[in-house]
Specification:
With about 550 residues, the chain is α/β, with parallel strands linked by helices. It folds into two domains: about 35-155, Chitobiase, domain 2 (2-Layer Sandwich), CATH 3.30.379; about 160-515, Alpha-Beta Barrel (TIM Barrel), CATH 3.20.20. It has 19 helices and 18 strands. Strands 8, 9, 10, 13, 14, 15, 16, 17 and 18 form a nine-stranded mixed sheet that branches. The chain has a seven-stranded mixed sheet with strand order 1-7-5-6-4-2-3, with helices on one face. Strands 11-12 form a two-stranded antiparallel ribbon. α2 (about 55-75) runs parallel beside α3 (about 115-125). The longest helix has 20 residues, at about 1-20. The protein is globular, with a radius of gyration of 25 Å. The relative contact order is 0.12.
C-alpha cells in the first residue's frame, strides 16, 4: 500500500513540475509532431460530435467511440449536425495518420481512413484520465479535460506487432483479449499468433483430429514459480489444449474492432514434433518412437518434405489458415530446421538427385515455394523467420520470387542487412531486447537467458541500423516477441511483457529522433494507473518511484 501511495505521489509530482513549463501530456507512443498550449477544453455533459464526409466504416468507428466513451464517463456524448467536436475526412493524410486540434472551444479530428480515425480517437482517450481508456466508470466525479494542443501524427512503420507463443504454454481467448486491449491502447496493429510447435498443436483441423488430441497433449510441463523463483515439472499430462474454430473467429473479430490484424503461424517443416507425434507417417522415420516435447530445444525430427502425402498435409494446413484468417499473409516459421533427417532419408536423397540439388537446405527452399504457391491460390503470401534466408544454402532468389517477408530475430542485424540487400520486406524483432519474454535481472525467476533485457535496453535499441541504404520501403516494422517455454501463467506473461511492450509500441510508431527515454519514463510511470485499473501485472523497473528516482536494473517491484 505504501509503495502504491509513493507511486501516485511520483506521478502527481511529475505532472505538477511538467505543467509549470508545459502541460504534461500522457501520450504513448509519442506522436510525430505535437505542440501544447496553455489552454484547455473541458468535455461537457452531452457533448455533440459532428461528422463531416465520413465513410460508413469511419462512422462505425465513431459510433464505437461514443459507446465506449459514455460507458466509461457517463457524459452522454452523441453525434449531431453541429457540435463542439468535429470529425472530418482528408485523403491527403497518411493512411494510419490523423490530425488533432484542441482549443478552449472544442476538438477537431481529421483522418483519411477508419484506422487513422481510430488512432486519433485512441489518442483522445489516452490523454484523458485513465478510466476512459480502461473503460471503467470512476467511483468519484472526474472532470474530463484535454489540454490545448495540435498533433500531426502517423506511424513510423506499418507493422507494429506483438507475438504470443501458445504452444509451449496455452493461453485462453480471454487471456489473449487482455493483451489485445493493451495493444489497442498503444496503437499496435498486428497480433502474431504462434499456434503450433514441438510442445503442442492448438489449431483445429477436422480432417486431422489427432492434432488436437494427441498433438495437443504434452506428457508433462514445466512450471515457473515466480515467487519462489524456481521451476519444477508438474508431473502430469498437459492438455489436450486447443482452440475451436469459433475461438479463432472470436479473436479475429475482437482484434479487428481494435484495428489489429491477426498473423497466424504454423511452424514448418521444423518445430513439428507435436504434429508428427499425431501423424508419424509424415516424418522421415515413421517407426521411430516419439512424443510431444515438454522442454525447449531444437528437434531433428522434421517433416518429410520429399513425401507427397506429407507435403499435401502441409498444404491442407495452409488451406485451413487461409479459410479462418482473413488477412493476406500466413507465417510458416521456417526457423531452426536441422537437415540431418533429410540427409538420412532415402526419399529426400532421391529428390535431391532428381532435381540436381547440392545442399539439403535446398529441400527447405523447395518446400517453402510449394507452400507459397498454395498460399497464392488463396491470395496470400508468406512470412518467415530469418533462417529461411540466412542459413547456408537457402535460396534468396526464390524468396524474392514469392514475395516473402522476413522476420529478423537472430542474428537480427545481420538478417536485416541480408534481407534488405535482397529487397525483402523485413520485421525487426531481435533476440534480446525485443524478446520480451526474457527475464530482466539476474535475480528474477528462472527464465529465458540472462537478465539484461530490461525496458531501458528495449527502448534504447535502434531498429534497422544495418539496413542497406535506400531500402526504406522494405522496412515493414517492429515486433515484440514472447515465447512461453518458461512462462506458465498469464500473470507472469503480463509481468514480463509490460511495460516493455510499451517501449516496442513507441519504437514502432514514433520517429527515432522524437524518442527520449527520460520522457518515456514519465509517461510509463503515469500509465501504472491505467494498468492497475485493468488488473495487469507489470514490472516497475525504471519507473520513477519513489518521487524523482527510478528503480535501477537490480530491483523489480511487483506489488
Amino acid at each position: 500500500m505504501i509503495k502504491k501511495l509513493l507511486l501516485l505521489l511520483a506521478i502527481v509530482f511529475m505532472a505538477n513540475v511538467s505543467m509549470q513549463a508545459e502541460q504534461f501530456v500522457n501520450l504513448t507512443p509519442a506522436p510525430a509532431k505535437m505542440n501544447v498550449g496553455d489552454g484547455e477544453f473541458v468535455i461537457p455533459q452531452g457533448m455533440k460530435i459532428s461528422m463531416r464526409g465520413l465513410t460508413p466504416e469511419m462512422q462505425t468507428v465513431v459510433s464505437r467511440f461514443v459507446r465506449d466513451f459514455n460507458a466509461a464517463t457517463g457524459l452522454g456524448i452523441r453525434t449531431a449536425k453541429d457540435g463542439q467536436m468535429v470529425i472530418g475526412s482528408d485523403l491527403g493524410i497518411a493512411p494510419e495518420g490523423y490530425n488533432l486540434d484542441v482549443d478552449s472551444k472544442g476538438i477537431k479530428l481529421i483522418a483519411a481512413t477508419p484506422s487513422g480515425l481510430y488512432y486519433g480517437l485512441q489518442t483522445i482517450k489516452k490523454i484523458l484520465p485513465p478510466n476512459v481508456m480502461a473503460g471503467q466508470l470512476p467511483k468519484k466525479r472526474v472532470e474530463y479535460v484535454l489540454p490545448e494542443l495540435s498533433i500531426e501524427d502517423e506511424p513510423a512503420y506499418s507493422y507494429r506487432g506483438f507475438m504470443l507463443d501458445v504452444s509451449r504454454h496455452f493461453f485462453t481467448t480471454d487471456e489473449i483479449k487482455r493483451m489485445l486491449d493493451v495493444m489497442s491502447y498503444y496503437k499496435l496493429n498486428r497480433f502474431h499468433w504462434h499456434l503450433t510447435d514441438d510442445q503442442g498443436w492448438r489449431l483445429p483441423m477436422e480432417e486431422y483430429p489427432l492434432l488436437t488430441t494427441v498433438g495437443a497433449t504434452a506428457p508433462d510441463v514445466r512450471i515457473t514459480d515466480r515467487k519462489e523463483k524456481k521451476q519444477y515439472m508438474a508431473g502430469k499430462p498437459y492438455g489436450p489444449y486447443s482452440y475451436t474454430r469459433q475461438d479463432l473467429k472470436d479473436i479475429v473479430d475482437y482484434a479487428a474492432e481494435r484495428h489489429i490484424e491477426v498473423v497466424p503461424e504454423v511452424d514448418m517443416p521444423g518445430h513439428f514434433v507435436a504434429a508428427l507425434t499425431a501423424y508419424p507417417e509424415f516424418s522421415c522415420d515413421p517407426k521411430a518412437e516419439r512424443k510431444v516435447w515438454c522442454d525447449p530445444g531444437v528437434s531433428r525430427d522434421v517433416l518429410n518434405v520429399a513425401d507427397t502425402a506429407a507435403v499435401h498435409f502441409a498444404e491442407k494446413i495452409i488451406d485451413e489458415l487461409a479459410e479462418i484468417f482473413p488477412y493476406p499473409y500466413i507465417h510458416i516459421g521456417g526457423d531452426e530446421c536441422p537437415t540431418e533427417a533429410w540427409e538420412a532419408n532415402a526419399q529426400c536423397q532421391e529428390l535431391m538427385k532428381q532435381e540436381g540439388m547440392t545442399n539439403p537446405r535446398q529441400l527447405q527452399s523447395r518446400f517453402i515455394r510449394q507452400m507459397a504457391d498454395r498460399a497464392a491460390t488463396h491470395g496470400k503470401h508468406l512470412y518467415l523467420w530469418n533462417e529461411a534466408l540466412t542459413e547456408k544454402g537457402a535460396d534468396s532468389t526464390m524468396l524474392r520470387d514469392i514475395e516473402a517477408s522476413i522476420f529478423a530475430w537472430y542474428p537480427a542485424d545481420d538478417a536485416v542487412k541480408m534481407a534488405t540487400a535482397n529487397q525483402l520486406p523485413t520485421v525487426y524483432t531481435p533476440f534480446g531486447p525485443y524478446y520480451i519474454n526474457r527475464r530482466q535481472t539476474k535475480d528474477s525467476a528462472p527464465g529465458a537467458g540472462p537478465g539484461n533485457d530490461d525496458v531501458k535496453r528495449t527502448y534504447t535499441t535502434v531498429p534497422f541500423s544495418t539496413a542497406v541504404p535506400g531500402s526504406e520501403e522494405y522496412l515493414m516494422g517492429i515486433q515484440g516477441t514472447f515465447w512461453t517455454e518458461h512462462v506458465s501463467d498469464p500473470e507472469y506473461m503480463e509481468f514480463l511483457a509490460l511495460p516493455r511492450l510499451l517501449a516496442i509500441a513507441e519504437a514502432a510508431w514514433t520517429p527515432q529522433d522524437r524518442k527520449d527515454f527520460a520522457d518515456f519514463q514519465k509517461r510509463m510511470t503515469a500509465d501504472a494507473e491505467l494498468l492497475d485499473l485493468g488488473g495487469y501485472k507489470y514490472t516497475r523497473l525504471y519507473m520513477l518511484y519513489p518521487v524523482g528516482k527510478s528503480i535501477g536494473p537490480d530491483v523489480i517491484g511487483e506489488e
